[in-house]
């Protein structure tokens, strides 16, 4: 009671020198909870004594359920303690997907996406989750810890519903954006075989969404890659007839089976499993836009319209930055691509890339 009488405000920092902000906050919260339970500090509005006990017992174990996001916006709650590092979370989700191979496990990453930030990077595997969370919450950031695949050397495994769901929702946005579709540059037309494949994928996407009715012509506009919409519009009548024929074979499929069949088709496409970046090429003072696709084949520079490969460099032909420059407050790094026969310097900025002339 003497403490209660003399203490106007609870402590705001730990009485012990602790290494991290998280542990400091935990110590303060636990001490405050004890004071409230003992009656040395008033309970908060609508707070009950049992909530103080919960704080002491659960938070005191340095463990809590924390939410992580999977592609598609699915949330998963995992037990996270003060000793939990990024690698622990990646390994836990990977095991839920049926991944046991150490090399395959390395193909997945955890990202921290902070609302308002333009860029994000994979978190270091030895970073402590709750230290990161404490810092973000201290700064009142809105953030999401997102698990996804970042390297694509291993083939797809279609024996796990969770695996199928994660890969499906990660691939589909790039597919619908048109990044995976390659069009012959000399006529920019989609051949009949590819058209039929696109219509089959559209029907599978529609079934994967849980729909029991065949897609309408309006539905098809959101089920096809952007670069295929013009071709569909020109041949909408015959295309819808073909989709109707396909639909009878879709009805027996559940949503997971539809997603799996969709992935089976797409994994055969050359640009499947690529990370795409918008770039700008500067050749003899002429600036042209292009796409940089990073995949297991190496670094690929694609035509902005057709997505045909203009240049391809193996990872062994990607050299360390040869120069770092500061221009108008922005840092650029010049990275050399190529070998003795052909070399190009790519000037990398955080948000875009510029090609300089060949050596």
What does this structure look like?
With 359 residues, the chain is an alpha+beta fold. Helices cover 36% and strands 23% of the residues. The chain contains 12 helices and 12 strands. It has helices at residues 2-6, 21-38, 49-59, 86-96, 102-105, 129-138, 161-177, 192-208, 217-220, 229-234, 236-250, 255-266; strands spanning 63-69, 75-81, 108-114, 143-149, 275-283, 286-295, 298-303, 309-313, 323-327, 330-338, 343-348, 353-355. The chain has an 8-stranded mixed beta sheet, with no helix packed on it. Strands 1-2 form a two-stranded antiparallel sheet. A hairpin with a 5-residue loop joins strand 7 (298-303) and strand 8. Helix 2 (21-38) runs antiparallel to helix 3 (49-59), helix 8 packs across helix 11 (236-250) and helix 8 (192-208) runs antiparallel to helix 12 (255-266). The model is unreliable at 1-6 and 350-359 (pLDDT under 50). Residues 6-224 form the MyTH4 domain. Belongs to the TRAFAC class myosin-kinesin ATPase superfamily. Myosin family.
């Amino acid at each position: 009671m003497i403490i209660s009488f003399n203490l106007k405000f609870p402590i705001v920092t730990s009485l012990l020198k602790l290494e991290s902000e998280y542990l400091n906050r935990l110590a303060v919260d636990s001490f405050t909870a004890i004071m409230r339970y003992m009656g040395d500090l008033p309970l908060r509005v609508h707070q009950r004594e049992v909530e103080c006990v919960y704080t002491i017992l659960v938070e005191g174990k340095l463990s809590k359920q924390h939410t992580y996001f999977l592609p598609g916006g699915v949330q998963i709650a995992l037990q996270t303690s003060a000793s939990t590092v990024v690698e622990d979370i990646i390994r836990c989700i990977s095991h839920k997907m049926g991944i046991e191979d150490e090399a395959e496990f390395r193909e997945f990453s955890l990202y921290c996406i902070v609302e308002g930030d333009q860029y994000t990077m994979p978190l270091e595997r030895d970073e402590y989750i709750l230290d990161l969370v404490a810092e973000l919450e201290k700064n009142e950031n809105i953030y999401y810890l997102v698990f996804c695949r970042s390297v694509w050397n291993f083939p797809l495994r279609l024996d796990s519903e969770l695996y199928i769901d994660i890969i499906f929702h990660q691939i589909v946005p790039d597919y619908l954006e048109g990044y995976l579709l390659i069009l012959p540059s000399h006529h920019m037309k989609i051949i009949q075989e590819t058209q039929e494949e696109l219509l089959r994928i559209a029907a599978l996407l529609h079934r994967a969404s849980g729909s029991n009715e065949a897609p309408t012509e309006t539905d098809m506009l959101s089920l096809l890659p952007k670069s295929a919409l013009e071709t569909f519009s020109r041949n909408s009548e015959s295309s819808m007839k073909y989709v109707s024929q396909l639909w009878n074979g879709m009805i027996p499929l559940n949503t997971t089976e539809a997603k799996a069949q969709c992935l089976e088709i797409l994994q055969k496409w050359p640009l499947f499993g690529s990370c795409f970046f918008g770039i700008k090429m500067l050749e003899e003072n002429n600036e042209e836009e292009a796409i940089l696709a990073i995949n297991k084949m190496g670094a690929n520079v694609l035509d902005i319209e057709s997505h045909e490969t203009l240049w391809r460099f193996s990872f062994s032909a990607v050299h360390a930055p040869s120069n770092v420059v500061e221009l108008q407050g922005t840092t650029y790094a010049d990275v050399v691509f190529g070998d003795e026969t052909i070399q190009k310097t790519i000037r990398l900025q955080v948000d875009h890339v510029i090609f300089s002339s060949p050596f």
